[in-house]
Design brief:
The protein is mainly α. The chain has a domain at 20-257. Helix content is 71%, strand content 0%.
């Protein structure tokens, strides 16, 4: 008799034994890129790699909830924006706050922590905030859940834009100390990968995927769908807030628009193209889309090509990304890494097929 090994049939298992080769390969990819970047020593490449690792942290954080629950989740960049502003407030010197945030509340003006403490503290605050505001949303399914999540992104953007005391309003927040470099971003990207994969292979992650593949079947098997979704979105926001803090201390000046629709589209494209169901898909998708966008932006900024084409090449990167996203959704809806993680076993399987 064949045994049912689907997630819905395995919700009673205490834990799934992770495959170490998955983490070894993914962390090896991150380490290889970081080492290659250090060996080349190019300033332009260093900026490119640093931003890619920051985006990788954000995309992997989004995979924790969206990939395991199957819910299209828009406010992720909004939570990252809250983490960015919070980490800046906690890490900026009191003297600089008088210049950059002249309307800051007095009880926050003298607060000054180290970068790591500020990063983790901001992530904890974001996680607590998300735990409060998202619990009711975890009861929604399908289109109502998507619409509510998009509305939450809009609400967060409006708050960040108009809360001048904390964010400087729509004006640019400047004077942020730069603490994020390529090695730092690579380290946090690696930590995010470990957290996401261990969660995916945990009991809660297994139950969440069971609710994704068959909500009613999982609930009838004893899975508290609302609870497992809630735990996942809290962890996702915690890791995403770290990514937002890394971005803030890399770019050193930004506005609330940095965490709104355009960046949300890019992050969602990375996880959809790579494959939202797997951590490997989040990593591969980030790498592929980053290389693609960087190449297209180089073409956009090429004076020779722009002069040869009437109307120039402005916007070609966004158009190309949209076309590729549509093609992936049509030809390979599960993404490049649809269901199986990148492991030694999967590589051997591909080799045998070839």
């Amino acid at each position: 008799m064949l045994q049912d090994t689907s997630p819905a049939a395995r919700v009673g298992i205490q834990a799934v034994i992770p495959r170490p080769s998955v983490l070894l390969i993914l962390l090896g990819i991150v380490a290889a890129i970081a080492v290659l970047n250090a060996m080349i020593g190019s300033v332009i490449l260093d900026r490119f790699v640093t931003r890619m690792f920051i985006d990788m942290t954000l995309v992997v954080a989004l995979q924790i909830f969206m990939g395991n629950s199957g819910i299209l989740w828009f406010p992720h960049l909004g939570f990252a924006g809250i983490g960015a502003y919070a980490s800046v407030i906690f890490s900026m010197s009191p003297l600089q706050k008088m210049i950059s945030l002249p309307q800051l509340y007095p009880f926050l003006a003298e607060v000054h922590f180290s970068f790591v403490v500020a990063l983790l503290l901001s992530a904890v605050i974001v996680a607590l905030l998300v735990a409060i505001i998202t619990f009711p949303l975890m009861r929604l399914h399908d289109f109502p859940a998507v619409i509510a999540s998009f509305a939450l992104l809009v609400v967060i953007h409006v708050v960040l834009t108009h809360w001048r005391e904390l964010t400087n309003g729509p004006q640019t927040l400047f004077g942020v100390d730069r603490y994020t470099y390529a090695p730092t971003a690579a380290l946090w990207a690696g930590i995010a990968i470990v957290i996401a994969y261990l969660f995916k292979e945990s009991r809660v992650g297994l139950q969440l995927r069971a609710s994704r593949d068959g909500r009613m079947a999982a609930a009838s098997s004893g899975v508290n769908v609302v609870l497992v979704r809630w735990l996942a979105v809290i962890l996702s926001a915690f890791v995403g807030a770290i990514g937002g803090g890394l971005y803030a201390h890399y770019i050193t000046s930004f506005t609330p628009n940095a965490f709104y629709l355009q960046e949300t589209f890019v992050i969602l494209s990375m996880i959809v193209i790579g494959g939202p169901a797997t951590v490997s898909g989040a990593v591969i998708g980030t790498f592929v889309v980053t290389v693609l966008l960087q190449g297209l932006r180089w073409i956009e900024n090429s004076e020779m090509l722009a002069s040869a084409i009437p109307g120039g090449l402005a916007g070609i990167s966004n158009i190309a990304l949209a076309v590729i996203l549509i093609a992936i959704l049509v030809l390979r809806p599960g993404g490049l890494m649809a269901r199986e993680e990148l492991s030694l076993a999967s590589l051997r399987h591909v080799r045998r097929r070839q």
